[in-house]
Design goal:
Pfam families: ABC_tran, BCA_ABC_TP_C. This is Leucine/isoleucine/valine transporter ATP-binding subunit. The chain is an alpha/beta fold and 257 residues long. It has two domains: 159 residues, P-loop containing nucleotide triphosphate hydrolases (Rossmann fold), CATH 3.40.50; 64 residues, no CATH class. The strands form two sheets. A six-stranded mixed β-sheet has the order 6-7-8-3-9-10, with helices on both faces. Helix 3 packs across helix 5 and helix 3 runs parallel beside helix 6. The C terminus is likely disordered. The structure holds adenosine-5'-triphosphate (ATP). The site of adenosine-5'-triphosphate has 11 residues, from strand 2 and helix 1.
Length: 257
């Protein structure tokens, strides 16, 4: 069953038609890719799913529930988390605090509770601290808990970004070019990490990636965008040899890893 469904989604930036009539599904429990040349509209899809933009037309549903019209915060509550093309950690905060702050997306108490520091508030704080440590331990980052996030090696910063996204307990995790800027050894570890996250958290993963090694290695289904239109969909083997995909990439410098 498709956890995420886009139906006839279109989006325009001024005179630019960034997406035209895009319909696609992301199956629950799978790792699915969205690929395409630069400027094809991939990040725009993520920005529409997460409520950064509202599509001019179309429907975006998570487990059958409409997301269009909800604020980004509500969409996080519904179970969608993401990471960004360029790492967006709070680099001057500790590794632990990066994960702690993400929990506040799910916590509901007002300033009154915070000022009064009620017992319920302290219990919640303690629970968040314990869960944050637990999450760091699961991602193998606990020994860095009190270090500045910005001081971690690049691969670990990506790992922390994914850990932080998982703090909101998503059903769907969107990864925007997770392998960008990684060396081959880091890419290898990232591929293992993505599969491990899918299996151990039971989360569905939808990723944008230019590195074909990642896409072909861990994704069962690949959707291909070109100039805002879906031009192909299929398994790695089907997409690799699809004439429209070859045409879209040829001469545009498809980055093979
Ligand atoms: N906020 C914006 N305002 C105007 N145009 C935009 C905006 N965001 C994206 N675009 C344009 O929309 C098109 C699709 O952009 P998008 O970032 O979704 O592509 P992409 O496939 O993610 O590209 P890349 O692989 O380079 O990240 C591009 O032509 C881009 O210049």
């Amino acid at each position: 069953m498709a956890l995420l469904e886009l139906e006839h989604v279109s989006h325009r930036f001024g005179g630019l038609q960034a997406l035209s009539n895009v319909s696609l599904g992301v199956e629950e429990g799978e790792v699915t890719a969205l690929i395409g040349p630069n400027g094809a509209g991939k990040t725009t899809v993520f920005n529409l799913v997460t409520g950064v933009y509202r599509p001019a037309e179309g429907s975006i549903r998570l487990a059958g529930q409409e997301l269009v019209g909800l604020s980004p915060a509500r969409i996080v509550e519904r179970g969608v988390a993401r990471t960004f093309q360029s790492i967006r950690l709070f680099k001057d905060l500790t590794v632990l605090d990066n994960v702690r702050v993400a929990h506040f997306a799910r916590v509901r108490y007002g300033i009154g509770a915070w000022l009064g520091r009620s017992a319920a508030f302290r219990d919640e704080e303690d629970a968040i601290l314990a869960t944050s440590f637990d999450l760091l331990a699961r991602f193998g980052l606990e020994r860095h808990a009190f270090e500045r996030a910005g001081s971690l090696p690049y691969g670990d910063q990506r790992r922390l970004e994914i850990a932080r996204a998982m703090a909101t307990q998503p059903r769907l995790l969107l990864l925007d070019e997770p392998a960008a800027g990684m060396n081959p050894a880091e890419v290898e570890r990232l591929m293992q990490l993505i599969l491990w996250v899918r299996d151990s958290f039971g989360v569905t993963i939808f990723l944008i990636e230019h590195q074909m090694r990642v896409v072909m290695g861990i994704c069962r289904v690949i959707h291909v965008l070109d100039f805002g239109r879906l031009i192909a969909r299929g398994s790695p083997d089907e997409v690799r040899s699809h004439p429209r995909v070859l045409e879209a990439y040829l001469g545009k410098g498809a980055r093979e890893a």
